[in-house]
Amino acid sequence: MNVPAAIIAFSQSEKIKSGLIWITQALELLSGLSTTEQQGAEKVIKTIIDMISQEIHVARNLTKDDSLNDIEKHMDMALVMINSQMTPESGYHLIQALTRVTSLGQRSMSVLKEKGLL
Length: 118
What we know:
4 helices
């Protein structure tokens, strides 16, 4: 990974990680809501997932890092689970995406440290 790609990957990975954590926490709160509230919350969650997916798309286009494809697949599966009324199962895919984003962030941080930029 070159330095410009590492900078972008590091920045985007932090942004994506934050979003994934927000979504995971929001999904945990769903069970305590009424049916009407759950429907509204799911709409918000889907919107945030779409926003995170856009950040993944930007990162992939700028860095050309193939690991972002796998992250996007897990995000897509999480959305499929939510759309299929299997919301609790979406957590697995979000955690898988989070694990892969964390790995991307660590790889990019290693490159930046190696070059003395962090």
